[in-house]
Amino acid sequence: MAPVLEVRGLRKRFGGVTAVEDAALDLREGELLSIIGPNGAGKTTLFNLVSGLDRPDTGSVRLFGQDVTGAAPERLAGLGLARTFQHGRVFGNLSVLDNVLVGAHARLRAVRPAVPVLGPLLELALAAIRPGGVRAEEAALREDAIRIISLFGERLTPRLDHPAFSLSYANRRRVEIGRALALHPRLLLLDEPTAGMNETETAEMQEVVAGLKRSGLTILLIEHKLEMVMRLSDRVIVMDNGRRIAEGLPQAVRHDPAVIEAYLGHREAGAAREPVP
Amino acid sequence: MTPLRRRSLLAGLVAGAAATRRAAAAETIHVGVSGPLTGPNAQYGAQWKDAFDLALAEVNPAAQRQIQYVFEDSQSDPRQSVAIAQKFVNDQRIVMELGDFSSPASMAASPIYQRAKLVQFGFTNSHPDFTKGGDYMWSNSISQAEEQPQLADFAIAGLGKRRLGVIHLNTDWGVTSKNLFAAAAKEKGAEVAAAEGFLPGERDFRSTLVRIRDSNPDCIVLLAYYADAATIVRQIRTLGLPQAIVAVSSVYSPKLLELGGDAVNGVHVITTFFPDEPRAEVQRFVAAFRAKYNREPDTFNATAYDTMILASTLVNQFGATRAAVREGLAKVRGVPSVVFGSMQFDPNTRRVEGARYKRLVVKDGRFTLWS
Amino acid sequence: MGGAWFDYTVNGFVIGNIYALLAVGLALIYGVANLVNFAHGSVYVVGAYVGWAAITYLDTPLPVTLLCVVAVSALVGVGIERIGLRPLHGSSRIAPLLATIGIALVLDQVVQLVFTPDPRAVPMQVPEWRVAVGGGTIGALDLLIAGIGLTSAVVLYGFLRFTKLGWAVRATAQDSDAAQQMGVDVNRVNMAVFAIASALSGVSGVLVGMYYNQISTAMSFEATLKGIVALIIGGLGNVPGAIAGSLILGLTESYGIALFGTSYRNLFAFVLLIAMLVWRPNGLFAARRALPPEPMTGTFIARSRPVVVPRWAVAALVVAAALLPLLGQPYLLQIGANSLMYAMLALSLTLVAGTVGQVSLGHAALLAIGGYASGLLAMDAGWPVALSIPAAGLVTAALGTLLVFPAFRLTGHYVSIATLGIGEIVSLVILNWTGLTRGAIGLGGIPPLEVFGFDLGSVEGTYWLCLAVLVLLALLQLRLLRSHLGRTWRAIRDDPVAARSYGVSGDRYKALAFGFGGFAAGISGAITAHVYSYINHETFGASISILALTMVILGGLGNVAGAVLGATLLIALPEAFRFLAEYRILIYGIVLLLLIRFRPQGLMGTV
Description:
Number of domains of chain A: 2
Radius of gyration of chain C: 24 Å
CATH class of the largest domain in chain A: Alpha Beta
Structural class of chain C: mainly alpha
Structural class of chain A: alpha/beta
Order of helices and strands of chain C: HHHHEEHHHHHHHHHHHHHEEHHHHHHH
CATH topology of the largest domain in chain A: Rossmann fold
Helix content of chain C: over 70%
Distance between the termini of chain C: 60 Å
Largest sheet of chain C: 2 strands, antiparallel
Oligomer: heterotrimer
Number of strands of chain A: 10
Radius of gyration of chain A: 20 Å
Helix content of chain A: 25-40%
Shape of chain C: globular
CATH architecture of the largest domain in chain A: 3-Layer(aba) Sandwich
Largest sheet of chain A: 6 strands, mixed
Strand order of the largest sheet of chain C: 1-2
């Protein structure tokens, strides 16, 4: 069976700066692969290249066996790829529920008939008329969204109607993950899901991610909190200066001299929040 | 007009209103005015006011029915002119409406006046369709169908020119004028070598003039207002074009001399109003205007003055009702007029014919009769 | 013809030279404050009149004249910064832009009240010698203007590179929050920049006044518009680029006249603008093709919780509105009908600008398309009015969406400028496509409103028709907003990148919004055309676009009830202010500014 994600020889330069150089990775069904490395190592750029927000200069990306190098993010979402963003990009003026429902956009079928040319007009008409099929679909999505939101316990459920801008930082990250899950992704890209969270919140988030993994979801994770990485990951890739400097099982990577060097070297910049022992 | 003067003018209006209210038992007749007091055309509304006040100061004291005008600022904007129209048609005091300034503003309000059978007297609306809006739309604005042959005659028979380069304002007025001019010129055996339309507000005509120059005209014809004409003539001169310049009557204004400076010397203009004309109506108007406002009147002042005199004549001769004003317009004969000498309307076109044209040339910074 | 082309080129440079003085100031302000200053042309007019007053009343020689102009204009610039920019830090991103529009309104009115709208001649204070170049001549003033343009660009460049304040300006331009943390007094920097840019604008006003021997209060909008086009060509915020952009604009206009005639001049300028925005949004001289990032501080719209009007209250209001004609007040009804027509336009704009975040400054063009479509269908094709109006709505939906389509990839201020340009293009095409539209003569004799023989031409009929159409459109829009489209549109507005990552195609949903909005605006334009009976290319001008945007902001971006309220207030207020005569537009501008300052989310709140 083809790997879920297959990246080969990916390179991206901004001006004179190389952000990602010769990146390669394979991700198999049900696997959780973590990417770690100091700030500026190119992790988020790699995410952007994989999720279609940036085009690579060279190299290829294959998703579920299809070549999707340079494909638009809309198309990737349709294939079942969902991502979260490093600094959080919730829709500030939308309610918690609406944020999660936008995540389910790619799953809309009844209201978005796959008709060429006239499709958009039909969509407008169906949104206005709302026949039974459309209403049922919307109700089902709503129910599903509420179920997803309940994954975070009582954190979000009482706030379904609150605009996202009124939420705490940690809650916004939860909304973002909820939005990603509403896509029913086959591949989930999480960019620092616990950034800015305290210990309790981090532990909760770790449980959520562990649960997703147990349910069989394939996950690519960027994370600075090494303890979480060690506990959850099947494999770990370490990046520095745009390059992969190590790859392997969590315990093996942890003791790799190159990794220790990279982290220690960047320590003064305050990159690694949990220095390697 | 300085702000101080403006304020005193307003105060005067208020005082006048109070005075007429006291004499309400005697006949005070109201006419509505819809025109621009703010916005880009505000200067024209201000000129109307001056002329109206002058005319009323002359005719009201002796008249049995005294006119008072209600001026509503429309900014010459159709949205506001239609609201004003509703205001006027439902104000039973008002027996006649004057304005608006621009054709879009006037013609948008026409259906309302027509429906209510209140005369809309669009005294600046030369748009050929204005009086076609209904039998309550009348105008004493100079007909371009009459003026353009006069202008063509000046250039062709008067100055002996054969190849004409036309620069016209690209508005309803300008395009109508240009078409009529071209037809008249052809009839008189001359050729329009080029016709260039410019948008209101343009200031740079150099490239337009290169096009005109390269069509090799022996005369440049300006169908514009005085402010634009001053700019165009200056640029004609700085480009060193030697051709004679002939301009339409809306270019005649004391402001042309101020804005054009030395460059406008030698410009030929036709006009219906010329202060040095010895005719009695003209001399009385000019003297009174100078005495009251301490400056030279122009064609806009003259037309507005004529219009208010006409309004007074109508209500005093034919009665102070809307129907009487409508009937009066069709019947009235020989109303003294600065522009026309004497005014009467063609009941079919609802316009005035027989404007008297003078041919002028600018000499040493002054308008003088051309001979 | 070779000689003629040389002359066209020289003329292009001469006029471009004049645009450059405006564009340099605009570039500087954009570079530092990320703001397209719509009040720039008004400062230019202030400068022109200050210069005129100094020469006329004080008999000042040229250097003193310029000094007066610099001093007053700089002061006005500082005022703009204090009123239009500083207090709005942290409010919605569009607020400062709107504030500059409001300031422009106020400044223009003040100048008009003080100096009257009569055009004035500015005495020439520069030697009148000229040299022949090709078929034309170039005078001392041309060289002075070029000299001031170039010198100011060089001095600005040096100032930005080599002085401490200049360093601070550049740091602020890069990232104002970071600059602030690094100890740069951002307010002082902004103030300095506005003072410098406004002084330049004022000087160009008086010099251009001398150049044409004429100034008038009406020249401010044209100046702003040309300056902005030049700015876009050169690249927003790029000072040397602004000069090059101005020259290119001048050349384009000149060659446009050479090839097609004078009436095509502005059409060429605006087509160039749109082409630049689509193909090189960073300007000709930018290295990268991608758009620069929008400032990340603040959200697109002001955060607020909308005022919720209970359903029974809405129903009661609609019933009350329907009963209004029974009062027998036709003047009131006409204002009501006007308000309702504008409310349809505001509905359309609040969807596009508020819900989807595409702040259109050319929305009146949709009215024009609707008005002409219905007028021509009724007059030339003989359609009954009851069919031509909905058909005009559909035509406007299709045409409007197609026209704006190239601008869909743009964001923020670029959208506003592109739509402004598209609006001008529509008006100029109507003017020049004489065969279809009758050009400047306009459409006269458009048949009155009627529905299958039932006459609606009376003010009551018009009012009831407008009310019925508005209620239908509003209900439909509310229904769409409550469907998946509502959240999808708002998601695109809040974060287009995140939306795309969840499969939301920006183009598709922007097109749907413009399509529905175009329909509503087209209907509004069509009804207006039948009520007015006469329209021409000026009936639906840029001032109406700005008025519509004001209505939408006043009501609260994206808020359907707010759009109706905003339209009603802004149509009724100028009527209510009638007793203020010449002062009413000034008061209106001040009210607008106060509103942006103290209630940026609008009366009903943003949605």
